[in-house]
Amino acid sequence: MKLNITIDGKTYEVEVEAVEPEAPAHLRGWMTGPAANVRVPAAPTPKSAGTRKKPVDEAKVLRSPVSGIVVKVAAQVGQTLQTGDVLLVLEAMKMETNITAPRPGKIGAIPVHEGDSVQSGEVVMEFE
């Protein structure tokens, strides 16, 4: 197939060849017309039962309410907290969100660091 393409006021005649690979076997029955260029993602690898961690005590963890980047870790392991103390700051969609202590307590571990990407629901703080 020949096409005319104009770039910066100059017209070029180009020849284009359409290459249509054969569709995967599981898609051939319902497709009509020429085969489409279909990419089938690889199936995710299931995690084996041996690599699972012990169940988490939800009363002793703080999960991220949003997906984002850790901008600042304002708390330290061993620090005693009061309800509302700022623990860390996340940036999500160009907005900063303060993550605060839900109750009084003491920090046992901080599994994230500044610059880390976190997903919604990921543990960002562990309490003693």
Give the topology string: H per helix, E per strand.
Answer: EEEEEEEEEE
β-strand percent reads 35-45%
User: What's the count of strands?
Assistant: 10
Describe the main β-sheet briefly: 4 strands, antiparallel
Structural class: mainly beta
- Quote the average pLDDT: 80
CATH topology of the domain at 56-127: OB fold (Dihydrolipoamide Acetyltransferase, E2P)
Please report the number of helical segments: 0
- What's the alpha carbon Rg, rounded to whole Å? 26 Å
Instruction: Give the CATH architecture of the domain at 56-127.
Output: Beta Barrel
In the predicted model, the low-confidence regions spanning at least 5 consecutive residues are none
Provide the CATH top-level class of the domain at 56-127.
Mainly Beta
For the largest beta sheet, what order do the strands appear in spatially? 3-10-8-5
Within CATH, the superfamily of the domain at 56-127 carries the name RNA polymerase II/Efflux pump adaptor protein, barrel-sandwich hybrid domain
Report how far the terminal alpha carbons are from each other: 70 Å
> What multimeric state do the chains show?
single chain
Please, could you describe this protein's structure?
- The protein has no helices and ten strands.
- It has 128 residues and is mostly beta strands.
- It has a domain of 72 residues: OB fold (Dihydrolipoamide Acetyltransferase, E2P) (Beta Barrel), CATH 2.40.50.100.
- The strands form three sheets. Strands 3-10-8-5 form a four-stranded antiparallel sheet, with no helix packed on it.
- It is elongated.
- The N and C termini lie far apart (70 Å).
